[in-house]
Amino acid sequence: MDILSLTTTVATREDAQRLARALVEQRLAACVQLDEGVQSHYRWEGAFCADPEVRLTVKTLPSLLPRLQAFFAEEHPYDVPQLLWQTMAASPAYAEWLRGEVAAA
Q1: Fewest Cβ atoms closer than 10 Å to its Cβ: which of 31, 45, 49, 51?
Q2: Which residues contact 74 (CB under 8 A, 6 or more apart)?
Q3: Residue 61: Cβ-neighbour burial (10 angstroms; 0-12, 13-18, 19+)
Q4: pLDDT value at position 104?
Q5: Domains in the chain and their CATH numbers?
Q6: CA gyration radius, the chain
Q7: Quick check: 35 and 50 in contact, CB under 8 A?
């Protein structure tokens, strides 16, 4: 009973909510969790940055990964968004619920 968990970050709560709503409405995700209070430290264009961000954790099916990548290429506000994913085992009940909430590819 594998599911896909994908994470990305954005700069504002508004962007996170916009993306989460669109993912669920388009049935690309069964659930999107938002974690505020994340601070990312990184180098961008040669400069050190430390910025607050909101993390999105997207729960979906592995078969929807190509559609998720296309969605984020169009909708994500960053030039180079973090997109990290892993396939995870899930309880049969949760996996069944998730499959019923997304549009399988």
Answers
A1: 45
A2: none
A3: buried
A4: 73
A5: 2-101 (3.30.70.120)
A6: 14
A7: no
Q: Model confidence over 51-100: pLDDT tens digits?
A: 999 999 999 999 999 999 999 999 999 999 999 999 999 999 999 999 99
Cβ atoms of 29 and 23 closer than 8 Å: yes
**How are beta strands 84-89 and 31-44 bridged, if at all?**
unpaired
DSSP bridge partners of 9: 55
Q: Is the pLDDT of residue 105 over 80?
A: no
Q: Where are the beta strands (DSSP E) in the chain?
A: 2-10, 31-44, 47-60, 84-89
Rounded Cα distance between 86 and 67, Å, is: 16
Write out the two tokens for 8. Answer: 């990305």
CB within 8 Å of 16: residues ≥ 6 apart: 10, 34, 54, 56
Question: Which amino acid is it at 37?
Answer: G
CA 21/CA 39 separation, integer angstroms:
23
Q: Which residue has the tokens 């009940």?
A: 93
